[in-house]
Amino acid sequence: MAVYIVMGVSGSGKTTIGKLLAKELNLPFYDADDFHPSENVEKMKNGIPLQDEDRKGWLAILAENIQKWEQGDGAVLACSALKEKYRQQLTSIPEEYLKWIFLSADFEVILERLKARKGHYFKPELLTSQFETLEEPQYGLRVNVNTSEENILKEIMTKLKAPKAEIGLIGLGVMGKSLALNLLSKNINVSVFNRQVPGLEENIAKNFVQENAEKYTFQGFDDLKEFVSSLNRPRKVLLMVNAGAAVDAVIESLLPFLEKGDIITDGGNSHYKDTWRREKMLREQGIHFIGCGISGGEEGALKGPSIMPGGSAEAYKQMGPLLEKIAAKDKTGNPCCTHIGPDGSGHFVKMVHNGIEYAEMQLIAETYHFLRFYTNSKPTAIASLFEAWNKKMKSYLLEISVDILRKKENEDFLIDKILDAAKQKGTGGWSTNAALELGVPLDTITAAVLARNISGMKEIRVNASYLYKNDNQNGNLEEIKDELFQAYKTASIINHAVGYDLLRVASSEYSWNLNLSEISRVWTNGCIIRSGLMEDLVDIFKDSNNHLLLNKNIISEVEKNQASLTKTISIALQSGFAVPVLSAATNYLLNFTSAQNSANMIQAQRDYFGAHTYERTDKPRGEFFHTQWKNNS
């Protein structure tokens, strides 16, 4: 039978709560103070703190009795057990039969209680030494006693009945709440934690538990130690907090409560280099760290996102099954979750996903804008056109654009009331920076990032529109819609080629051994850039990880539509409409397929002003030359 030890400093209520618990569990109650030899009692009456030597015999007697109680009907014992070595000496029975309940409270709360007590030999002056001696356990139940006895008992019983959680989630924003509900819907036992910020974030976790109490049973915490204690070993903690300093702060606050083998998973949009740094730091302390990209927004998090975890294979073996349970499913029923690779590879892949997403969104936006103002088409007409296109594209972003264009507020289209100044969280720009570091052209994604930047210059753009007489020309929808579709489709292919090339080069540079086919499969459902093209890429990259534009089927498709792409851009630019991603896709394609481009002039210029040297077409690669260019004659 189980033996329950109610522990804490004097005045925390061990005896009172222990008796109430014993009655609730129908077990005998014992007070450890009753087992002290007379010399110990005399010392405490005289205000003399007990030394470890004084406690040896007392603890040995208690350990013997704990064995007897466990072999009998069980018991509840009230015992201070302030030091870990005391608790170890009391652990005379298997851990599964010994239940520790730590009654916790602030010094001031206990002091006031002791001052009010009468007829007890413990003097309030000894409280300071008790708090100095206390080594709080990192196991068992932790209950704050600054509430009524009824509430304390209720919390203890709730926690005793509740099984240990398989996973703990920190951060109950929109994504955190949705992921928690997703986990619970898969019958995964979850504990949730949210910080307490007076006036801003108060009782978030407890309120979230209460709001969902009719459907799910789980625990919410605002005390980090209690939260960690509620988790099964090895502890698995999923962070859903803002990227950057907040992640480091949470990790730092978690570490004192974790043990070797525990796993922290960062599910936010962290930079892959930060993830790399954190993984290395935690590995040295025996803690696993997974940088996990999660795509799908609020709905995806709730119903099944695309999940991209990176880290050690050992960590994924522990955490992967839980992530796979909550992930979206591909067309064969397999989870859209896979072990991406080591280090920061998971967050790198998510970053590139977001980069591709930026360009796909901009591509749709500039196509809509061109149709709206070049052909004077109503949003509903463009929505119908996009809907027809999407029967072939099967693009989630095109699908939601149809809904957006049809949305009305009263009699007006809502799209017309939205300010044309786009926001961004930075992941698109991170892709551009990574491409620059790796020497990879990223035309479409970079163009999309910069398009958002210039959209934010609203006041300047308005002023400039008055200064420059940009007379937009008009055209006919029926005349351009077919070639515009071919242009849109081709630009989308090129954009994916650009993003995947960054993955390909990073995989080689960082020795990640990325599986582009498997990454494509993970992106076929749950994520923002899911599409028919993504389904095709699963098979294309099974055969080869080469640049997408070198695939024979892609070559055929692009060649067929290249004239429509360039013609559409020409019409748009001549008519006064910016199409940055369409243009970037075309320039990338022309540069990529050019056996001879303009870089020889660049090299000559660099050698002229900086003596940077150059290679020659009539000499082997790797030989460098310098010329005195200025003719002094």
TrEMBL record:
InterPro entries: 6-PGluconate_DH-like_C_sf (IPR008927), 6PGD_dom2 (IPR013328), 6PGDH_C (IPR006114), 6PGDH_Gnd/GntZ (IPR006113), 6PGDH_NADP-bd (IPR006115), NAD(P)-bd_dom_sf (IPR036291), P-loop_NTPase (IPR027417), Pgluconate_DH (IPR006183). GO terms for biological process: D-gluconate metabolic process; pentose-phosphate shunt. Its EC number is 1.1.1.44. PANTHER family: 6-PHOSPHOGLUCONATE DEHYDROGENASE. Keywords: ATP-binding, Gluconate utilization, Kinase, NADP, Nucleotide-binding, Oxidoreductase, Pentose shunt, Transferase. This is 6-phosphogluconate dehydrogenase, decarboxylating. GO terms for molecular function: ATP binding; gluconokinase activity; NADP binding; phosphogluconate dehydrogenase (decarboxylating) activity. Catalyzes the oxidative decarboxylation of 6-phosphogluconate to ribulose 5-phosphate and CO(2), with concomitant reduction of NADP to NADPH. It holds the Pfam family 6PGD. Homodimer. Belongs to the gluconokinase GntK/GntV family. Signal peptide: none annotated. Residues 346-630 form the 6-phosphogluconate dehydrogenase C-terminal domain. It catalyses: D-gluconate + ATP = 6-phospho-D-gluconate + ADP + H(+); 6-phospho-D-gluconate + NADP(+) = D-ribulose 5-phosphate + CO2 + NADPH. Pathway: Carbohydrate acid metabolism; Carbohydrate degradation; pentose phosphate pathway; D-ribulose 5-phosphate from D-glucose 6-phosphate (oxidative stage): step 3/3. SUPFAM superfamilies: 6-phosphogluconate dehydrogenase C-terminal domain-like (SSF48179), NAD(P)-binding Rossmann-fold domains (SSF51735), P-loop containing nucleoside triphosphate hydrolases (SSF52540). It is an enzyme of class 1 (oxidoreductase). CDD domains: GntK (cd02021).
